[in-house]
Amino acid sequence: MIEAPGGVVRPHLLVTLYDAEHRMSEFWRGVTAGQRLIVRGPIATQENMTRAFAGDVCVLAAAGSGIAPIFQVLQFAHINSAYRNKRIVVIHCARDHACLWLSREVATFARDMPGLEHHVFLSNEPEKCIATTTTTSDSPAMQTTHERLSKALLLRAVGPLTGAQCFAMVCGPDSFNRDVSAWLQAAGALAVQVLDS
Asked: What is the pLDDT of residues 8-62, one digit of tens each?
């Protein structure tokens, strides 16, 4: 990601390669320097990023590769001092620790953003304890839950929203976007923006 003057964020392309017999990974392995690609994705605009931070609380929820545009929104808040002290709740769902993209970068931002909370839900690591808190010397606590995200777990992470103006942004597969949007609206979020992945 590139931080530009005026809060404009220009994303780089993040590619993850999987084992053999994965068609998209095979395609990427065949790409050579000089080839041109047309890429589209859920890039957040300055207008909808500003709208996400209009209230007291901002919830940013991502599943899988949806973390890339959600991170773009978080990066926008990090470079705009007006949003640095705002309560921002990042919900990040992944299969396991290997799929936790950009978590180090979120931890880096947390050093400058005292209101930033990072909640991770790992659906394919149930053998570990159900809820643990990991703290490192250079970042505040990151809450990790070894369970698939549910309405109850989301509401526990976000906390009571009664009396707060909460705006949210969600990015992931269709079923994730639909469920998390409904759960947040039921919890009292005033508006939920969906970035289709």
From this structure: 555 566 777 877 677 788 888 889 988 887 665 556 677 878 888 999 999 999 9
Percentage of the residues of the chain whose pLDDT score is greater than 90: 37
Within a 10 A sphere around the Cβ of 138, how many other Cβ atoms?
10
For tokens 């400058």, name the residue.
112
> Distance (Å, rounded) from C-alpha 128 to C-alpha 186?
30
Q: Are 145 and 121 in contact (CB under 8 A)?
A: yes
List of residues 6+ apart from 59 with CB closer than 8 A: 88, 89, 91, 158, 166, 167, 168, 169, 184, 189
Tokens matching residue 146: 């070894």
| All domains in the chain, ordered by first residue | 42-196 (3.40.50.80)
Dihedral angle, C-alpha 78, 142, 158, 7, nearest 10 °: 10
